[in-house]
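Lab notes, practical 5.
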Amino acid sequence: MADELPPRMPPWGAELVAENAEFASSVLDRLVPAVVQMFRADAARLGLDPTELAILEVLRAVDPLSISALAGRVSLSHAATARAVGRLEDRDHVARNHDPHDGRGWLVFLSPDTRALLQNARARVRHDLAVVAGDMAPERRVAMLRALVQVTDRVMRSARDQAEQRWQENRYRRWQERQRTPHAER
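Output from the prediction step:
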């Protein structure tokens, strides 16, 4: 029983698998560089580094957040996130208030001016995409939107899984380091 081979795939199945792999590569090879390039250009135009823009984009979607929650969302260490938030606070992009549920913690809020700035930052791209959408039949727009949602959900799930795995590996590594450190040094 253990030496049995898996059932043979019908010939059309192998072609479909190859086409699906080609589709996945095409989407990633075209989409990721375009998004990265747009993100970097937006950051430069706004006088930010990409890390700062990532923090602002997260806060645009969900604020307020603690530094820890924000660090998890942008896949940075707590210290790196706190430094970036400090720079953003110095330029009035964000504000910090005491967390009412944690007297030691702070919540980070996006300033109203920065929220408007982010909304307007991609106005040209939104306009261009609206023109493209206007040239499409409604059924094609709906199909494209559904496909885009599926693709982005999968890509984001993969990114979250990878970030979670890195976090778990770092946590385990730190635990191992603590186990090797004599109690007197702690």
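Observations recorded by the TA: Residues 138-180 form the longest helix (43 residues). The chain has a mean pLDDT of 84.
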